[in-house]
C-alpha cells in the first residue's frame, strides 16, 4: 500500500513538473515571438520590444575574429530609424518567420535555439539566453550564425 501511494505521488510530481516546464516554454516562445520576431525583425511595436528585452541585453557577434557587442538600446535606436524611414509593414515575401528548435529551462534561466527564415530561405540560427524576473521572461543576450 505504501509503495502504491509513493508511486502515485511520484507520478503526480513528474506530471506537474512536466506541465510547469511546458508553461514556461510557451511563455518564452511568446516573448521571443512578440519582442524579437514580430517586433525587431518585422517592424512591430517598440513597446513590445522593450517589454521582451532586458535593458542590459547585448547581441554578441564575431567580426574579423573579434567579439563585438551591440546593446539593446542601440538596436532599438537603429530599428526606430529604419521604421521611420519606411513605416510600411513587411510584405508576405519580406516577413521573417521563426522555427523553435530547442528551449531548455533550468529554474529562472533558459536558452532558446531558433532559426529565422524569409520566404523559405534560412537566414540565421540564433541562440537566445533568457532570465525570468518578477515581471516575466526577458531576453538578456544573443549569439547567432548567419547562413
Q: Could you tell me the strand content as a percent range?
A: 35-45%
CATH topology: Nuclear Transport Factor 2, Chain: A
Structural class: alpha+beta
Q: Overall 3D geometry?
A: elongated
Q: What is the helix/strand order?
A: HHEEHEEEE
Distance between the ends: 58 Å
Number of domains: 1
Rg, Å, rounded: 19 Å
Mean pLDDT comes to 92
Q: Could you list the spans in which at least 5 consecutive residues all have pLDDT below 50?
A: none
Structure explained in plain terms:
41% of the residues lie in helices and 42% in strands. It has a six-stranded mixed beta sheet with strand order 2-1-6-5-4-3. Helix 1 packs antiparallel against helix 2. A hairpin with a 2-residue loop joins strand 1 and strand 2. By secondary structure, the chain is of the alpha+beta class. The mean pLDDT is 92. It has a single domain, classed as Nuclear Transport Factor 2, Chain: A. The longest helix has 40 residues.
Features:
alpha+beta; 147 residues; six-stranded mixed β-sheet
Question: What order do the helices and strands come in, and which of them pair?
Answer:
Blueprint: H1 2-41, H2 46-52, E1 53-63, E2 66-71, H3 72-85, E3 96-106, E4 109-118, E5 121-133, E6 136-146
Parallel strand pairs: 1-6
Antiparallel strand pairs: 1-2, 3-4, 4-5, 5-6
Amino acid at each position: 500500500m505504501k509503495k502504491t501511494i509513493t508511486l502515485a505521488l511520484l507520478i503526480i510530481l513528474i506530471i506537474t513538473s512536466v506541465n510547469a516546464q511546458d508553461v514556461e516554454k510557451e511563455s518564452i516562445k511568446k516573448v521571443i515571438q512578440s519582442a524579437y520576431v514580430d517586433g525587431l525583425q518585422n517592424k512591430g511595436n517598440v513597446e513590445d520590444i522593450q517589454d521582451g528585452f532586458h535593458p542590459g541585453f547585448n547581441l554578441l557577434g564575431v567580426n574579423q575574429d573579434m567579439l563585438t557587442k551591440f546593446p539593446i538600446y542601440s538596436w532599438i535606436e537603429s530599428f526606430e530609424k529604419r521604421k521611420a524611414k519606411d513605416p510600411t509593414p513587411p510584405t508576405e515575401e519580406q516577413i521573417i518567420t521563426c522555427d523553435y528548435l530547442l528551449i531548455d529551462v533550468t529554474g529562472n534561466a533558459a536558452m532558446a535555439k531558433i532559426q529565422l527564415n524569409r520566404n523559405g530561405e534560412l537566414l540565421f540560427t540564433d541562440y537566445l539566453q533568457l532570465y525570468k524576473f518578477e515581471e516575466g521572461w526577458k531576453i538578456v543576450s544573443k549569439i547567432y550564425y548567419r547562413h
